[in-house]
Amino acid sequence: xxxxxxxxxxxxxxxxxxxxxxxxxxxxxxxxxxxxxxxxxxxxxxxxxxxxxxxxxxxxxxxxxxxxxxxxxxxxxxxxxxxxxxxxxxxxxxxxxxxxxxxxxxxxxxxxxxxxxxxxxxxxxxxxxxxxxxxxxxxxxxxxxxxxxxxxxxxxxxxxxxxxx
Length: 165
Hints:
By secondary structure, this protein is mainly alpha-helical. It folds into two domains: 1-32; 54-164, no CATH class. It is built from seven helices and two strands. It has helices spanning 2-29, 54-61, 69-78, 93-103, 117-124, 134-154, 158-164, and strands spanning 86-87, 90-91. It has a two-stranded antiparallel sheet. Helix 4 packs across helix 6. It is elongated and about 80 Å long.
């Protein structure tokens, strides 16, 4: 009986140490990213800043996007007001991927159109003129990201779901 007692105590201590270190990792990362902050494959290496005051004029020019303004402020505050969608070579690959995903929303069964789709098309399609400044392009892509997340991941509201049958 005494022979089993020592291995049992050793295993119990080992499990307690492992379990304790796992929970300390959870607590260490807890609170770093609030739930309402957007995560993703953004351009984390960008040191290209932009003026946060340009947000006000952007939303005056594009009022249909006002509902995303608070989230955009949080996102750029988290990224220290540096560009997310640009690097030294232009729009990052994730921006192109996002554009293609939004363009194919109907294929995914979501019948919603981004309010300024023609502006977005000008960024990515060669035959269309891009009339947006680099900062407007940056902010438009962030709003496009929020639009996509809202339509695809949030889904339809209860009223629309009931109306569809």
